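A common beginner's mistake is to predict each chain separately and then try to dock the pieces by hand. The better habit, illustrated here, is to supply every component at once so that their relative placement is modeled jointly.
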Amino acid sequence: MIFSLLKDRDAQFFIMYASSKNANFRYATKFWIPDPAFYMIGDDGTELLVVSEMEKRRAEKESRVREIASLNDLGFYEKIKEGKNAKDALTETYIELLKTHHARKILVPDDFPAFLYEKLAQNFDVEVVENPYADMRKVKTPEEIEHIKDVSNAIIGAFQFFLKLLEKERDSETLRNSVEAHLYERGYLAQDTIIAGKASSAYPHDIGHGRVEGHVIFDIFPGSKKTGYHSDFTRTVVIEKNQEIEDMLKACIEAKNTAISMVKEGINGEDIHFRVCDILESYGYRTTRQKSREGFIHSTGHGVGLEVHEKPRIFDGGEELKAGMVITVEPGLYYEKVGGVRVEDTVVVKKSGSEILTKFEDYVRLGR
Amino acid sequence: MIFSLLKDRDAQFFIMYASSKNANFRYATKFWIPDPAFYMIGDDGTELLVVSEMEKRRAEKESRVREIASLNDLGFYEKIKEGKNAKDALTETYIELLKTHHARKILVPDDFPAFLYEKLAQNFDVEVVENPYADMRKVKTPEEIEHIKDVSNAIIGAFQFFLKLLEKERDSETLRNSVEAHLYERGYLAQDTIIAGKASSAYPHDIGHGRVEGHVIFDIFPGSKKTGYHSDFTRTVVIEKNQEIEDMLKACIEAKNTAISMVKEGINGEDIHFRVCDILESYGYRTTRQKSREGFIHSTGHGVGLEVHEKPRIFDGGEELKAGMVITVEPGLYYEKVGGVRVEDTVVVKKSGSEILTKFEDYVRLGR
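With all components supplied together, the output reads:
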């Protein structure tokens, strides 16, 4: 994919400057590094990872990239000694490196930092492209799917733990801390877990505050501390009877399950999204197609992997699904006066169907 | 600070495009948003935050920025309907927005994404600058200091918990997981906590592996899950008697306390660093001034806040301290054959002195 992109754009190198918090960088290098490092891959198969002196030995041991250089190896400290500031010394080091490799045209990803882009563009023909690794990450290997399964199982355990807690504890913050600590102890990092009672639930990204009443959206998307892979799961737990909420929830459950039954290789994500809209509209709810500010106001889903949100989009302008993709299906309905509901599963796309990784009953009522 | 920068560079706007994982964006907007959003501030005081439709109401409620627009408000969706891809629609929306505001020259920070930089540079004069918010973040408000105090107290609790554990548990990974889980349950996220026994302790960034023996560096820098603020603390715990280590530790304790006694408004960070070097050199240890690879090989400290490492540097080329800054003081000594030691406190700079936020005895011996 990278080689055809380089050929296509008549470029010699694709480069990234990022830390491993950047999923594409981590995927490309298979290396965990907390500070930004430089990665280049050439049309002739050359690959080089440049790290600080301190990280060099570890990179040689742990990274997939075979050729490792330290900034020192490339003359960075000589420039510092000449009195240059760190940023100028850094950009000059990389420019010299690329010149040594006879680069004329270079591709950089969308999120490449401006300070380096600006200097490279003064020396080379630089084109900004969508990161090809983001496309390569869409279809998962069996090993990656195992990682996502592993987190999915931890999620189901955490949800069961949450349901027990909810019988006696109703403070959002306490619930969130307890659930996240439960996962953390087991090796999973969950952040911004949504535990949103009636009042908070009308806003899809409100993580929830204060006392949980009426019903609660539980939306969790932890990553494994070891592998970095995520999974994503939502259930709405009904605490007190409320016909409006139950009707909304039933419509979302029907939409989710119909959508999941459509998932297989070859179907377009947009068709799944529009089917979800059809179902919700048939019950009188408004959707993204009416550009409403209430109702179903987000996409049906997204890919999941090293990032919680990654390609493909299950939305307007979606793409054809391929076996091995891992996606979420998550219809929701939000009304300021009533509150919000959402149900979500993470599923693997297969040749002729799909596999749900986050199996749990859809309708959850407290105390049943 | 931003207005003078804009005036200085003859620019009309400073803009950021980032999520709240970016400390400067979070600081500027006082808003937590997981996906990238657009922030602009003008030389006339105009301020605007552009978010997705879904985040608009929450942004209006929670963000410090008064004027909020959604992408839809600015015509994004019309461009999508015309068949433009999301990225082109996005960049065009922002370019039109800036033109409406009569922008001619725009400042962007170092880490501004290349895809947007490239398009803006085709329409405006764009200059890459160090993010002015990074300078504004240096002096903390009383509220920010309270947040850092809160984490500092949690750290002291975690260290006491660690000391008890250490009496029966000596595996670095187990100790790290237990301490980090202890904090997580209480609402604090500690990552890469250094629990480094004799063998690992010689490398300042080695988090420690295997069995802890001889002595152990405990270095922790959690952030509050709620506020995002960090604190930073290190103690070296002596497990077995070792004269070389104890001598190094005593020198570091003296250097730390002398340095802290110098901290007050008006002193330069460089003077503090050089005083630390003086003391360590007086005991025969090598320091950064000799460019040695052993001895005192890092800076004396750094600012702490929304990031663990932020401005100011307490090092060569440091700057004058101001009341309200929160900094670390952390002399350490590292010798490959002997191991390393370090002691560190986080302190608030005051008009005529300082306040230590991480109060704990300096010399810690196991079992005392």
